[in-house]
Amino acid sequence: MKHMNSEVKEERTSNKKRIDLFLVPIVLIAAFLNLFKIWTDEYANAYYTAAVKSMLQSFHNFFYASFDPGGYVTIDKPPVVFWIQTISAKIFGFHGWSVILPQALAGIGSVLLLYVIVKRTFGVWAGRFAALAMALTPIVPAVSRTNNIDSMLVFTLLVATWMLFRAVRTAKFGWVLAAFAMIGVAFNMKMLQAYMVLPAFYVFYVVATKITWKKKIGFLTTATALMLAVSVSWAVVVDSTSADKRPYMGSSQTNSVLELAFGYNGINRLTGNTSVTGSSHKQPAQAQQQTASSETKQTSNSNAESSQSSNQSKSSSSKKMQAPGGGNQNGMFNTGNPGPFRLFQKGLSDQISWLLPFVIFSIVGLFAGVKFKGPYTTKQKESLFWLAWLLPVAVFFSIAGFFHQYYLIMLAPPIAVFAGAGAVALWSMYKQHNGWKSWLLPGGILTTAALQVYIMSPYVSSIGVAPIAGVGALGVILALVLAVRKQRKNSLTNYLGAAAMVVLLAMPAYWAMTPIIYGGNSMLPSAGPDSSSGMGGPPSTAANSKQSGFNGMQPPGSSSGNSSSNNQMQPPSGSSNGGQMPMPGGSSNNGQMQPPSGSSNSGQMQMPNSTSSKASSSKRKSGGMNAEVNKKLLNYLTKNNTGEKYLFATTDSTSAAPYIIETGKPVMAMGGFSGSDPILTVSKLKAMIKKGEVKYFYLSGMGKEGQSDVITWIKENSKEIPSSKWQSTSSSAQQGPSGNGTLYEITLK
């Protein structure tokens, strides 16, 4: 151990005054994976992109993170990341890539920061391996290539980690305060998800600092108080502001940020009870399938997949609609079923778990011989920190009732650290013939290769047999050869060890490239040969792994066009919900999907025919079910606007977002993000119409339970605009609010 510590010091000293040349290609790889072709995504996640467009228009919208330029409702997340995106758009102009850029840079920054953190304690090679593992963890670039929050969240938490480690090294309380304050900033990015690292922070500070218990408790109490103050600072300001002077807090039921944080974006994630119907009664079965975030809504809109063959589609109207990812087999949105081995199930394992067996062997090696009462080395203390990050987060994802695949980026830093630090530690034990510990390296290589074969096996139709067989065969051969040559010391053994690491990182590297190769999905980012669908599951769960969700669904007024039964989704039967997945703007029929009104294809939903190569080579407007605007509708609304504040009103954000992005004009999402927020009442709507704030309403054939009274009133007190005046006849463009609906006009005197 003394020899290893001295080696670390020598490496640290020798690298202080020069750039680590091995780090350069790692950073370039990260830059390529995070940045290449982000300019092809024009809308990104349209729900968030529309908010940035609105926030650019006034400080009022900027501060509250208003979804629409009119300041009617906010998005369902805190504002910090969107402040950064808005600043980026202000500097570089409003584009899809300019709102993605901060997250892409954060992904690269996380790789660099992990290198700095790991290198100081575990050595330069551990830092290199950790940085490379972070860069090649498939879900990391998949998320960083979008305007979703999680990449920036992880980077912020790594900054807090660096501050905490510095606080322990320097014994300066100021760094402790800074570290916990940074977690408070992270809370204002994605609320309670930021607190998932708190066990690691508390455990590490208690174990690593050499001060009295009285001081430890006092310092941690003070730092925690500061963290909480920073966390709720924005929420307190917003909740203290009169409701008529700010937008409604989107996706809350009481117009409160704190309710949003600790309910909708908090405990409900664990329980899975994310229903926000706006009704006064609970529906547990439906709640399991309803969604609780912008990402989920976009899943229903843009990323649900059709798993029926042509024969199945004929009878699917008598069946309940399965959740993406294969229903009960793979869980809702392909996140598997709760249990101790959930991270090894389909849909999750290929996003994050490629190196988990090696990590387990590394943890055993790093903690081998550690006594409970200490004393602990710096390596053991920091290993304990990363273990206290890894385990609680892994447990959460193993039992949580609701989350999305890309949330798994929270596991990437500890996995990368244990992969890097463990590789060096296990290699050292192997070379020193350190008893049973010397078998950990070949054992880790063998089991990791076996898991990777298991992960890839459902994708044989997409990637072929060769890579699967190659990884399996090379993993077994290298592990066995290393086991046989355990007593020999020569350069060949060194090359074999390096070759083993290359083999274990080869397929994660390919998976990390799939959003570039096949096209990504900005609403539900995931990696894999079907990454453009946003489902992240094996192709065997879909009729066509190259389809990218519902982006090809017909816009209102478009002719349905010719499509095979393979490309159509049948509406579910008229039976009770029973856990069916609700579609956007779904009516009060317990979440069943209704065919768009006026549809000429018997309610069937047309799936896109575009291939993955097309998705990756051309401009993508993947921000919603219909990510382009209906030009004829827009022209009609603009021409007939007589000074109204809102261009038109519609049920939810999916219909409104593309028009906000394209025009920068206020469009009212009456029920907020999902269409279920209890924002609007009939009396409020009457007052708005009388004030001349809105007169046009686009209503699709699908409505939301929480808006039933408002929608009924609109239909009873309006005149229907003839479809010939605003509906497009194009069958190839995606041109309007979701679904084929009806345009109404209301004028009250």
Walk me through this protein's architecture:
- The structure is a single chain.
- Helix content is 51%, strand content 3%.
- The protein is built from 29 helices and seven strands.
- A five-stranded mixed sheet has the order 4-3-5-7-6, with helices on both faces.
- Helix 1 (2-14) crosses helix 6, helix 2 runs parallel beside helix 7 (124-136) and helix 6 runs parallel beside helix 9 (150-170).
First-residue to last-residue Cα separation: 85 Å
* Structure annotation, total helices: 29
Shape from CA axes?
A: globular
Stretches where pLDDT is under 50 for at least 5 consecutive residues are 1-8, 276-329, 539-617, 731-736
Nearest-integer average pLDDT: 80
- What Rg, in angstroms, do the CA atoms define? 27 Å
Q: Please provide the count of β strands.
A: 7
Beta content comes to under 5%
- Structural class per helix/strand content? mainly alpha
Give the oligomeric state.
Answer: single chain
Helix content: 40-55%
Note the main sheet. 5 strands, mixed
User: Order of strands across the widest beta sheet?
Assistant: 4-3-5-7-6
